[in-house]
Fold this protein.
Amino acid sequence: MTLLADAGQGAQLGGMLLQAIGTYYGVRSQQRGLRGAAMSAEFDASLADLNARSAEAQANDILRAGEDRAALVSMQRGQLEASERTAQGASGFTGGGSAAEVQASLALARRLDTHGIRLESIMQANEARMQGVNFRNRAALSRVSAANLRSTSGTMSAWGSTLTSLLGSGSTLSQQWAQKEARG
């Protein structure tokens, strides 16, 4: 019976050592997983930075295109005004009343059209800039997440966990040995 009891305790000791080894490699695996997740968060931050720069460039392009469109409309409306003045002058009608009202209406239409185009392009550019802000916020959060993951990985100790595992198992094993010795 003693041989069988000694073999059982030896098996328990072997199991304790295997558990400690498993604990060590389990913690190391968790650390690698956390570092990998941190790298992934950094990559996400980099992509978000690129998208933010792209959104800002898009906003600037929208504003330039709006100014170009406004200039074109202003030029076309100006040509229409000039043609109307020429037609009025050719007909001999140069003064007040409805001719002046027509000229004023054409000038007002030109200003309203160009103002509308500029306003629309500003609104579209602001939407693009808002996307850029969202991307920059995402990048900042990803960087914080990466730092937290790295910090958590750094606080884990494979050897400390292994020692804790050995101490817990060793305590149970030593109690069993003490009981065996007390029984005889």
Summary: Helices lie at 2-90, 97-155, 158-183.
